[in-house]
Amino acid sequence: MIKVGILGAGFMGNMHATVYSQLPDVKIGGIADIRGEKAKSLATKFKTVPYYDPEQLLNKEDITVIDVCLPTFLHKEYVIKAANLGKDVICEKPIALTVEEADEMIEACKKNKVRFMVAHVIRFWPEYKYLKEIYDSEKYGKLKSISMRRISPLPTWGWQDWLLDQERSGGALVDLHIHDTDFLLYLLGKNPEKIYSKVVKREDGLYSHIFTTFTFENLIAFAEGGWDFPSNFPFEMSFIAKFEKAVVEFNSRNTPSLVVYESSGKVEKPTFEAIKIEGLEGNIEDLGGYFYELRYFVDHVIHNKAFTVVTPEQARNSLAIVLKEKESADTGKEIIL
Ligand SMILES: NC(=O)c1ccc[n+]([C@@H]2O[C@H](COP(=O)([O-])OP(=O)(O)OC[C@H]3O[C@@H](n4cnc5c(N)ncnc54)[C@H](O)[C@@H]3O)[C@@H](O)[C@H]2O)c1
To answer: 20 to 30 A from 121, CA-CA: which of 180, 202, 280, 294?
Structure first.
């Protein structure tokens, strides 16, 4: 049994608390939020202790794991605080806003010999896991091209609208689109050779929609990520992967979500276990990914196993690549890595 302290009772704090409440071997030891009413209502819902001062929760000795669900610009500060107190840490993605911050976080966790995982949930999402499995096994031959997409209405739920502040969130580029960049790098196990990006910016400087072409040896990948759609637009995450012997199409808005069109003419519709959690807010109905991610984290902490699905260095690398996309968009040039 481990006791976890959650920092941040917003959108992701609620999501993580809901998942922990469904897992054996983990107890929520407290939830901290500077907005007292948020901490109180989430703590009441999950029958735990609210804290208004995150330091108080961090300093509780019986809490050995800290889950950082704070706005991204606060990740570095709180991951390092938790590490210096000897706590294992899970932190929401993106790891940080700059590579330098990410390096300091990784260094602090290493120095204090604590475990550190960045919550790149897409690596645990059933349809994306399926893609990784068939890529690795070459069930349908080699991957020739892939197009990925993630589009959503403007995220207006954040505390003090931090998500709409380029300086505090990195905009759709660093906050939303990193999901696909990170998954692509994980899928292929390498960085691209070239990156070419175009971005739509709001008047206030927020990077709200990004289009990137990644060139790898023998493979072209394209990813689009945007959150500048109207509030009635249903969230979509999707990909079309062209293998030598099949096309795999996933769209979170379709039923079934994933279809394999084999070159032989056969059509396959793999099914995935859907984990529904009652009473959960959010725009994604199937919460499988969050459940699998946190189950993996808890299991690996309890059994003292190394994290292999996502390492802090990989999360840092994904951030570095997303920042190269920014550089390409800003300079209008293709970046050669
Ligand atoms: N994996 C995903 O699919 C996913 C989805 C959404 C957000 N995220 C990430 O999760 C993180 C949190 O995002 P969110 O959407 O939950 O934001 P949010 O604004 O809904 O929640 C953040 C909470 O932190 C609280 N807070 C601010 N400063 C604090 C402090 N110093 N101490 C304690 N509490 C403080 C705020 O009051 C707020 O309730 C971000 O890094 C974001 O990128 C990930």
So the answer is: 202
Ligand 1 in reach of 288 Cβ (< 6 A): no
Q: Which CATH superfamily is domain 2-119 in?
A: NAD(P)-binding Rossmann-like Domain (3.40.50.720)
Pocket flag, ligand 1, residue 178 (CB < 6 Å): no
CA 81 to chain centroid = 22
Determine whether the shortest distance from the Cβ of 70 to ligand 1 is under 6 A.
Answer: yes
What's the average model confidence in pLDDT over 289-316?
A: 96
Structure confidence at residue 162 (pLDDT): 98
Q: Which of 11, 55, 296 is the best mutation target for the ligand 1 pocket, counting ligand atoms within 8 Å of the beta carbon and taking the most?
A: 11
Q: Select from 7, 184, 157 the least CA-distant residue to 91.
A: 7
State pTM to two decimals.
0.96
Write 189-192 long-range contacts (CB < 8 A, 24+): 190/216, 191/317, 191/321, 191/337, 192/216, 192/221, 192/321, 192/337
- Whole-number Å distance, alpha carbon 326 to ligand 1 midpoint, is 23
Count of beta carbons in the 10 Å neighbourhood of residue 120: 24
Which of 34, 40, 58 is the pocket-test mutation for ligand 1 (most atoms within 8 Å of CB)?
Answer: 34
pLDDT (tens digit per residue) in 132-150: 999 999 999 999 999 999 9
- The CATH H-level superfamily of 122-336 is Dihydrodipicolinate Reductase; domain 2 (3.30.360.10)
